[in-house]
Amino acid sequence: MSSNFMNFPKGNEFREIFEVLGDGIFNSDHELWRSHRKITNALINNPKFLWFLARMNTEKLAKGLTPVLNHVASKGVVVDMQDVFQRVTFDTTCMFITGYDPGCLSVDFKDVPFSRAMDEAEEAIFVRHIIPKGVWKLQRWIGFGTEKKLQKAWETLDDVIGGLIARKRKDLSEGVVSKDEAKGVDLLTSLITEQQTFVDGSTHDDKFLRDTILNLMIAGRDTTSSSLTWFLWLVMTHPEVEKNIRDEINEVIPEYQVGKWRIFEAQETNKLVYLHAVFCEALRLYPPVPFQHKAPVKADVLPSGHHVNPNMKFKLGLKGKSRVASAFAMLSRRNGNTEKLASGLLKPFMTQSAVTSST
């Protein structure tokens, strides 16, 4: 569908299901979607942002993740690594979007209302996919079940994000954050200091900032934490792959540092070709966005050969598609793909950037 993307807009039903996300990139179509995409790409390609992202992740690993893992290991405590990764990505995503660290990752695994509200909102969105529209609308009207949780979560999201926006505006106006130094570093600062008018006449008002922050928070936190969780599980259940990763790391780092604890700089990871291949394979097997639903404006033929009529709703099972041998030229049922990817003979089915840009 990438060749005929404009024929498959989100549509009114999609926006209704995801209404809590407002007019962000997940819910937008056509020119408004292009505007959101342009803003996101400009941030990702900004050298200051890339420097900030690398520094921020390094600090979070050294001062956040490592102390937490050392603490639970010394206490012999069993932890849910999916929860740990989600806390890491929640902090880092919030930092590069707003410039503030919410401190979700800590040894006491404290409850963070912002993160919990996102979880409850996503649960309600999922339930809306699997029960009839009339049922969840009735639940919303009487304030019952996941719809009741969604309304409370919605209020929390608005309050927290509104507070972050007000705080950023105050910091910028008082010179706490220099506009010249911080411009383009985190997304919120960039959006406030670089006003832009969209095709519909709107500007970067607080509602636009709220919708953009929430959409990118969900995209950044959940896709990355899901990918890391499946990656870790796959590596742990395939010891031969773990050995290959360790061997590659030992070949890349200086000999005097072999066996010593360290955190890799961002540019150093470019040399870890096999590790990159394994991560791509994990994304293929367990895509963080396992399905999508679409409805074409005009009749079309899907790559599978199926005909779809205008406004005909259908679901795309990305997880199933990624496991079809003919779609990926799978040459081996086990680790053959990682070896082919590492040697450059196969293109990865899905990359993390493709996941976030496909919305």
From TrEMBL:
<comment type="similarity">
    <text>Belongs to the cytochrome P450 family.</text>
</comment>
<keyword id="KW-0408">Iron</keyword>
<dbReference type="InterPro" id="IPR036396">
    <property type="entry name" value="Cyt_P450_sf"/>
</dbReference>
<dbReference type="GO" id="GO:0020037">
    <property type="term" value="F:heme binding"/>
</dbReference>
<keyword id="KW-0479">Metal-binding</keyword>
<dbReference type="GO" id="GO:0004497">
    <property type="term" value="F:monooxygenase activity"/>
</dbReference>
<dbReference type="InterPro" id="IPR002401">
    <property type="entry name" value="Cyt_P450_E_grp-I"/>
</dbReference>
<keyword id="KW-0560">Oxidoreductase</keyword>
<dbReference type="GO" id="GO:0016705">
    <property type="term" value="F:oxidoreductase activity, acting on paired donors, with incorporation or reduction of molecular oxygen"/>
</dbReference>
<protein>
    <submittedName>
        <fullName>Cytochrome P450</fullName>
    </submittedName>
</protein>
<dbReference type="InterPro" id="IPR001128">
    <property type="entry name" value="Cyt_P450"/>
</dbReference>
<dbReference type="Pfam" id="PF00067">
    <property type="entry name" value="p450"/>
</dbReference>
<dbReference type="GO" id="GO:0005506">
    <property type="term" value="F:iron ion binding"/>
</dbReference>
